[in-house]
Amino acid sequence: MTAVLALAVEKKPARRARAGVFLRKPGFLIAWLYVAFIVAVAFRPGLFTGQDPYATNPAASMRAPSAEHLFGTDVYGRDLWSRVLHGSPLTIKATLIALVIALVAGLGLGVVSGFFGGFTDSLLMRVIDVLLAIPGLLLALSIVTALGYGTIPVAVAVGVGIVPGFARTTRAEVLRVKTLPYVEAARAGGASWGRVLLRHILPNSWGPVAVLAVLDAGVAIIAIASLSFLGFGAAPPAAEWGTLIADGRNYLVTAWWLSLLPGLFVALLVLSLNHIAKTFQELNR
Question: Which of 56, 145, 187, 261 could bond to 71 as cystine, CB 3.0-4.6 Å?
């Protein structure tokens, strides 16, 4: 009991030290605030704009960014800032669906492969190797072509496309943790393999997988926006980010803001997620 209390007391300063490290990183705080803003927008876009994203106004067609229209207007006179914000729910929710699919399938395959080893490991890893040999976007494009157009098929396709990375990372961590002394001690103490897996291996294999989840969130957003750009996303007039960028590609000379500003909006989100993931990775070393 005394040892447990001492360990708890030791952990509190460590947590405070980590929190202090985050506070001393302004780049991390800015990235975190931007991601928090996007998540808030994804669930309540109306809190950040009073414009109707679908209301057309031909008299205000293709106006440059101004105080009234922060991102300007599109060819139909619709407020682009409002359309970018109202497009957030589609892309962010599709990203969450893709990550859930990748986490569940990738964790399952990685745990089974690393924990049981032998023929099971060889068979599953050969399947993962085949999937890794196919570029992720090409694999997602093939899947969404079979499933059909729309936000959900795109999310499923992207999720399947990033499963191999999660499976590989989980397998590597399970193999590493499985050979550590405290796991062997638990087995020597009479703990079943199921208890060892749930109480020792899985909790201590989660760190790198969580970092990969944050990193692959950016990959998923780019893939979803790319498929929407190619026309596989939600049907018009839905304001998906990739669709907004595609709508302005024919007006880059006369109305640069139509593609550039939504593109920067997406790029900043991906860079923020990458920065957060790299920061967590550095602290876990």
Answer: 261
